[in-house]
């Protein structure tokens, strides 16, 4: 049995900017002040909970470390490790029937419980980051403080700006994002402290600082890429009294539309985390397990997210929907949609945006976007097309018989919403996904370093060795 972990809580330095006696709260157009006791920062909250979490893990391993938790079939080995239970991921768990839960809370529960912008309807991603890291729903004041801290950390080094500006416009936006995040290694507190020989007990603190800096800088980096490739190259400054999603939308050039702001808050929240086994999450965790900095770890995860079987899926859905719209025109009848679905399947293609490796019901992330569309753009022709596909596709796919889950996932909807509000550059959509995914994977990286998670090193065999193991003759 593995040796129980020993961990000493380090002295903490505050992770927030200095605040006056009156706590600063944000309004849509001005700052308001309320007299209040200073709340705990995110770093203080996490540090306070950490000893108990470490003891929980120690006890679990001591009492049940030898217990078998599953079995592995040869099909799983050759099928991309699909469904093998072998990772620890605290932030979210995906149930085939219920969908995703963030620290035990469903998406509708998060929409209800997490703090919102003043007068807003969707949760702020700052609140979900807090929830994923600590397991606690933050107060509105704590989220406002976190918004302020991310804004304070948002300045991007000049050499990163120049690196983006010197990139050719036909270099894919995701490649530019990965390049910039990798170059931020130059600023890594973790890498610098490790080079000086910091003790293991301090790993998590420096990982926390890097993660906060990374998340804070991502919108400005991502917006600079967007404005360079598709617009005039001018990027608005971060407004220090605004929330994270407002600043990102404003830097992209869409802040004047309040509905788009709410969509950005929803988008950045629901795309953050989806268990630890997906490519971007697992890659970030794997590279981080080698004690690579959060910058290098996230860059690796972003490279995985860029693949067409992962983050590019929403772009492929939108392309397919646009081709369908061109084919059926204004005829959105059941018969027309059914015929187009069957023509897609009979040509050997899949219906993009439908099916999921784990889910066996409609993705709750799809549902949250559909409900947003019903409130804000019910008469949009592309949304009506999406709705018709949602009505017809499950039956067609069930009859086709080759899809375990005939229901839509998150990618089946997001592109249509972004198009409606004028963000029409589909090749950029994965960058939006990447900004959101950082908010989901970096909390686990902090937790990994805090509890002393080891380097990940599964055992591999050759095909001949596997055959021998199962008693096969080749």
From TrEMBL:
Keyword Transit peptide attached: yes
Record GO terms (molecular function): 2-methylcitrate synthase activity; citrate synthase activity
GO terms (BP aspect): carbohydrate metabolic process; citrate metabolic process; tricarboxylic acid cycle
Sorted UniProt keywords: Transferase, Transit peptide
Pfam families: Citrate_synt
InterPro entries reported in the protein's UniProt record: Citrate_synth-like_lrg_a-sub, Citrate_synth-like_sm_a-sub, Citrate_synthase, Citrate_synthase_AS, Citrate_synthase_euk, Citrate_synthase_sf
Reactions listed under catalytic activity: oxaloacetate + acetyl-CoA + H2O = citrate + CoA + H(+); propanoyl-CoA + oxaloacetate + H2O = (2S,3S)-2-methylcitrate + CoA + H(+)
CDD domains: ScCit1-2_like (cd06105)
Active site: 310, 356, 411
GO cellular component entries: mitochondrial matrix
Keyword Thylakoid: no
PANTHER family cross-referenced by the UniProt entry: CITRATE SYNTHASE, CITRATE SYNTHASE, MITOCHONDRIAL
Family membership: Belongs to the citrate synthase family.
Protein name stated in the entry: Citrate synthase
Organism: Heterodermia speciosa
């Amino acid at each position: 049995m593995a040796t129980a972990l020993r961990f000493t809580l380090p002295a903490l330095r505050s992770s927030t900017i200095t605040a006056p006696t009156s706590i600063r709260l944000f309004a849509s157009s001005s700052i308001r002040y309320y007299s209040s006791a200073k709340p705990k920062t995110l770093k203080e909250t996490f540090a306070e909970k950490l000893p108990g979490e470490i003891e929980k893990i120690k006890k679990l391993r001591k009492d049940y470390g030898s217990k078998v938790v599953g079995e592995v079939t040869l099909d799983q080995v050759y099928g991309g490790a699909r469904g093998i239970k072998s990772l620890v991921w605290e932030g979210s768990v995906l149930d085939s029937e219920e969908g995703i839960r963030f620290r035990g809370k469903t998406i509708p529960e998060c929409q209800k419980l997490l703090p919102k912008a003043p007068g807003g309807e969707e949760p702020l991603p700052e609140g979900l980051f807090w929830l994923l890291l600590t397991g606690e729903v933050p107060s509105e004041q704590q989220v406002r403080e976190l918004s302020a801290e991310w804004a304070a950390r948002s300045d991007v080094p000049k050499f990163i700006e120049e690196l983006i500006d010197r990139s050719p416009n036909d270099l894919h936006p995701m490649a530019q994002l990965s390049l910039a995040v990798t170059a931020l290694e130059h600023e890594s507190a973790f890498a610098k402290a490790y080079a000086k020989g910091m003790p293991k007990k301090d790993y998590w603190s420096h990982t926390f600082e890097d993660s906060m800096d990374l998340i804070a800088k991502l919108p400005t980096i991502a917006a600079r890429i967007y404005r360079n490739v598709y617009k005039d190259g001018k990027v608005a400054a971060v407004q220090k009294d605004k929330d994270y999603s407002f600043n990102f939308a404003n830097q992209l050039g869409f802040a004047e539309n309040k509905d788009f702001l709410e969509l950005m808050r929803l988008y950045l929240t629901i795309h953050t985390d989806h268990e630890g086994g997906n490519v971007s999450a697992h890659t970030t965790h794997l590279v981080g397990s080698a004690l690579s900095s959060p910058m290098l770890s996230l860059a690796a995860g972003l490279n995985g997210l860029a693949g067409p079987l992962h983050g590019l899926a929403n772009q492929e859905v939108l392309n397919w929907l646009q081709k369908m719209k061109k084919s059926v025109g204004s005829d959105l009848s059941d018969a027309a949609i059914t015929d187009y679905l069957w023509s897609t399947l009979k040509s050997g293609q899949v219906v993009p945006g439908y099916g999921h490796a784990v889910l066996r019901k409609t993705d709750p992330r799809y549902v949250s976007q559909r409900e947003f569309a019903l409130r804000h753009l019910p008469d949009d022709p592309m949304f009506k097309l999406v709705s018709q596909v949602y009505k017809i596709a499950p039956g067609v796919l069930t009859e086709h018989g080759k899809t375990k889950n005939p229901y839509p996932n998150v990618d089946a909807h997001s592109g249509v919403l972004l198009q409606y509000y004028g963000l029409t550059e589909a090749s950029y959509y994965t960058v939006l996904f990447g900004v959101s995914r950082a908010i989901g994977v970096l909390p686990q990286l902090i937790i990994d370093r805090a509890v002393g998670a080891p380097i990940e090193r599964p055992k591999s065999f050759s095909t001949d060795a596997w055959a021998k193991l199962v008693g096969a003759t080749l």
